[in-house]
């Protein structure tokens, strides 16, 4: 399909589709000779994924990172998106109910306490951590928190030095191939570090943690302090390591 046909089909403007192409988010092949963009069925599936993620509030940069991850699985993403959209719908239903009550209160039909006026708001929800807990269990998270709490200040400092050293080694490698022997050796050091100090990480959990490095901007921002693009590189290297060692 040509760009005009895709715009008509989806309701997305041609300018937006061109922008997605320019930033490398959705780049259809060019027809030989004319140079026109031609969208395949696969491109349309990718576009659908982009729109689902946008509806969930993902910025374009993060959508690009997630879609480009070697560990990305479309069916798994659809299941997660459905779950998050259902959660979003439930939150919206609660907000609508709160508005209806507030209108009734304003018109004198009911009385609301100050506490009831804010019961529909929830600023503590963290879908990424919750999803990780549901997929890979609470054990790894709880063991990590308990282990840190039981360390002395000097022990925590030494642990931080060791962790930063691994990050710096990986940062030096981030412009190369995440599948290279050197990169995989460095990511094994990270895998061993986590299993030594923070409980037991299965290969699937390790791969899932790498996915969170690019899906959750808090992880990305923290890791990329050692070098821009490090989170993406580590995510790819972790997925390759997990798949090769199963």
UniProtKB/TrEMBL annotation:
UniProt cross-references to SMART domains, sorted A to Z: HTH_MERR
Coiled coil (residue ranges): none
CDD domains: HTH_TipAL-Mta
PROSITE patterns with a match to the protein in the record: HTH_MERR_2 (PS50937)
Keywords annotated in UniProt: Activator, DNA-binding, Transcription, Transcription regulation
InterPro entries linked: DNA-bd_dom_put_sf (IPR009061), MerR-type_HTH_dom (IPR000551), MerR_fam (IPR047057), TipA-like_antibiotic-bd (IPR036244), TipAS_dom (IPR012925)
Pfam families recorded: MerR_1, TipAS
Sequence ranges assigned to domain HTH merR-type in this UniProt record: 1-69
Protein name stated in the entry: MerR family transcriptional regulator
Organism encoding this protein: Siminovitchia sediminis
């Amino acid at each position: 399909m040509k760009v005009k046909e895709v715009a008509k089909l989806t309701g997305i403007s041609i300018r937006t589709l061109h922008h997605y192409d320019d930033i490398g988010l959705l780049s259809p092949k060019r027809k030989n000779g004319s140079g026109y963009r031609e969208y395949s069925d696969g491109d349309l599936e990718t576009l659908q994924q982009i729109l689902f993620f946008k509806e969930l509030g993902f910025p374009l940069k993060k959508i690009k990172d997630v879609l480009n991850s070697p560990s990305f699985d479309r069916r798994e993403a659809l299941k997660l998106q459905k779950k998050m959209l259902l959660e979003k719908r439930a939150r919206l239903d609660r907000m609508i109910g709160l508005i209806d009550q507030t209108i009734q209160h304003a018109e004198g039909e009911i009385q609301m306490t100050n506490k009831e006026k804010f019961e529909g708001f929830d600023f503590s929800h963290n879908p990424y951590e919750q999803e990780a807990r549901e997929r890979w269990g609470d054990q790894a998270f709880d063991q990590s928190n308990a282990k840190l709490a039981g360390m002395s200040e000097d022990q925590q400092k030494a642990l931080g030095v060791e962790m930063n050293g691994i990050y710096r080694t990986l940062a030096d490698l981030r412009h190369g191939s995440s599948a290279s022997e050197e990169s995989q050796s460095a990511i094994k050091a990270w895998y061993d570090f986590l299993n030594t100090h923070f409980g037991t990480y299965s290969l699937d959990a390790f791969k899932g943690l790498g996915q969170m490095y690019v899906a959750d901007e808090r992880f990305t921002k923290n890791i990329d302090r050692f070098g821009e693009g490090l989170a993406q590189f580590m995510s790819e290297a972790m997925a390759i390591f997990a798949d090769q060692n199963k």
